[in-house]
Automatic annotation (TrEMBL):
Species the sequence originates in: Streptomyces regalis
GO-annotated biological processes: proteolysis
Name the record gives this protein: Serine protease
Keywords: Signal
GO MF annotation list: serine-type endopeptidase activity
Signal sequence range: 1-29
Annotated PROSITE patterns: TRYPSIN_HIS
Alphabetical list of InterPro entries matching this protein: Glutamyl_endopeptidase, Peptidase_S1_PA, Peptidase_S1_PA_chymotrypsin, TRYPSIN_HIS
Keyword Signal: yes
Length: 257
């Protein structure tokens, strides 16, 4: 049987992973995400850069956020300053409306609640749910006054064609069972020519779509792909961003022009 994806898996953290989270929370808060030892998962400090990562909510949770998030997304730079990226399989449970809450923490939306107006998915996913195409972009509506989400929290560059493992990456995401994000930094490696993997403990349900941000501040992966992001909580996967991802990103710019 194929394992459930990270968007819906809700089993609790293993005890050793929970211990790691608690043990390194203080160090992470002091040093910031990505500054700690490789392969250690910790709660993410509230800071400007981590605010670019947020949680996704169904429309009926718009006014009661606590406990209602189900996947992770992040803001990426775009000409219209209104784009987020996540895993395409997160949209399997899509309803009429989804909301993105950047910097979500403990039931609060410090940077507002943003409606996702339109989704774009890679052709391979649309045609056959190809795990090598597990990436999607969402166009986020502006606030009244014309402010885009990237103007509110900033955005990381979306990078394709990068050599896997050339630098370490920081993965940040929201567990379904937690109300604050977790992060882990490590060097990814190739699983196949089209899939990359990273060893980070404790990434379970809710972390699908978590961005993999490299040392240059670019998103080079999103948690998903192989086995919906991974069959265990300790090794996660992402599509290798290549020609298909690059064309998807460009096509959104052409359509919104």
């Amino acid at each position: 049987m194929k394992p459930t994806s990270r968007s819906s898996r809700t089993t609790r953290l293993p005890l050793y992973a929970a211990s790691l989270l608690l043990a390194f929370t203080s160090a992470s808060a002091a040093a910031g995400a990505g500054a700690g030892p490789f392969g250690v998962t910790a709660f993410t400090a509230a800071q400007a850069r981590s605010a670019r990562v947020g949680a996704l909510f169904a429309a009926d949770r718009r006014d009661r956020l606590r406990g209602g998030h189900f996947c992770t997304a992040s803001v990426v730079h775009s000409p219209h300053r209104n784009l987020i990226v996540t895993a395409a399989h997160c949209l399997d449970r899509r309803v009429d409306e989804l909301w993105f809450v950047p910097g979500y923490r403990d039931g609060d939306a410090p940077y507002g609640v943003w409606k996702v107006a339109k989704w774009f998915m890679a052709k391979g996913w649309v045609k056959g749910r190809d795990e090598d195409s597990d990436v999607a972009f969402g166009v986020v509506e502006e606030r009244s006054g014309g402010e885009g989400v990237e103007e509110a929290v900033g955005g990381n560059r979306f990078a394709t064609g990068r050599a896997t493992g050339a630098t370490a990456v920081t993965v940040t995401g929201y567990l379904n069972s937690r109300e604050a994000p977790i992060s882990c930094t490590n060097k990814p490696g190739l699983q196949t020519r089209t899939q990359q993997r990273i060893a980070c403990p404790g990434f379970r349900g809710g972390t699908s779509g978590s961005p993999w941000v490299n040392g240059d501040g670019a998103v080079v992966g999103v948690l998903g792909g192989h086995d919906g992001g991974g069959a265990t909580a300790d090794v996660s996967y992402s599509v290798v961003f290549g020609a298909e991802a690059a064309e998807l990103y460009r096509s959104i710019g052409r359509e919104l022009h």
